């Protein structure tokens, strides 16, 4: 295998290596300099494997960059995304560590912001909020530690807001209507005691 062309991608700050087999690798400056790569250079199997792994990592990192630019993600979400483009666990772990070092990937911050939005803006229950976060790979322990910072009265306040929006013009003296309201609020994860306070 022989290098036929080397170019530089200024946008990604990577070197593009093209081989006589028509394969193309994206590699960092560090790899380029370390192995003194040049046009017409013959690659042995060892160097070829190094370039292949580096290319896999750089491509995975680009996928992660695009994925994280769209909105905040959890580590679990990013791992699942990367698994859809590479089976190389080392590349995946390397990308995860890279974005953690940059503090772009931060599960605790993500959970704090998520909980704040769900409890104070979307008026959801703590139970539903916790369930949603666990689906995103956040540990129950981390979620519980953040939820401890919130007054449990927020559950009642959120039920009041939902109740006034949805049942303002409903006759809840009717037993069936009251039962429907109870089931609805329960399905959103609100606690029995908080629901009873609002429904009576």
From TrEMBL:
GO cellular component assignments: cytoplasm
This protein's record includes keyword Cytoplasm: yes
UniProt xrefs under InterPro entries: RecX_HTH_3rd (IPR053925), Regulatory_RecX (IPR003783), WH-like_DNA-bd_sf (IPR036388)
Gene Ontology biological-process entries: regulation of DNA repair
Cell compartment(s), UniProt: Cytoplasm
Pfam families in alphabetical order: RecX_HTH3
UniProtKB keywords: Cytoplasm
Coiled-coil regions, chain positions: none
Protein's UniProt keywords contain Oxidoreductase: no
Principal place of residence: cytoplasm
Domain RecX third three-helical: 153-199
Function: Modulates RecA activity.
Family statement: Belongs to the RecX family.
Protein name: Regulatory protein RecX
